[in-house]
């Protein structure tokens, strides 16, 4: 798997199913996962994320592009960014879990 040129490597542990569903953005082509973070990202940045889903200790690799940014906490929505789920095998595995 090629490493992204910008954005870096992140880890995201999703504690429970409710958080998983709240993090999923279905309106993005092929879906996206919102990552709560204070880390500065820009639209279009390529990032690599190791995601741990609820009821699992396995970290699933996901390459993706930043498609949504919430720069600061507002109206009970945390600061962070959303990463579009890739169409590769690992991205589809994550999407199928949602």
What does this structure look like?
This protein is α+β, with helices and mostly antiparallel strands and 98 residues long. It is 16% helix and 37% strand. It contains 2 helices and 6 strands. A 6-stranded mixed sheet has the order 1-4-5-6-3-2. The longest helix is centred in the C-terminal third of the chain and has 9 residues, at 89-97. The chain starts with 8 loop residues before the first strand and ends with a helix. Mean pLDDT is 86; it is low at 1-7.
Overall structural class, as computed from helix and strand content, comes to alpha+beta
Task: From the alpha carbons, calculate the radius of gyration and give it in angstroms.
Answer: 12 Å
Number of strands: 6
The proportion of residues in beta strands is: 35-45%
Mean pLDDT: 86
Strand order of the largest sheet: 1-4-5-6-3-2
* Helix and strand pattern: EHEEEEEH
Parts with pLDDT < 50 across at least 5 consecutive residues = 1-7
Give the end-to-end Cα distance, rounded to a whole number of Å.
23 Å
Q: What would you call the shape?
A: globular
Helix content: 10-25%
Count of discrete alpha- or pi-helical segments spanning 4 or more residues: 2
Q: How many strands, which pairing sense, and closed or not: the largest β-sheet?
A: 6 strands, mixed
State the assembly state of the protein chains.
single chain
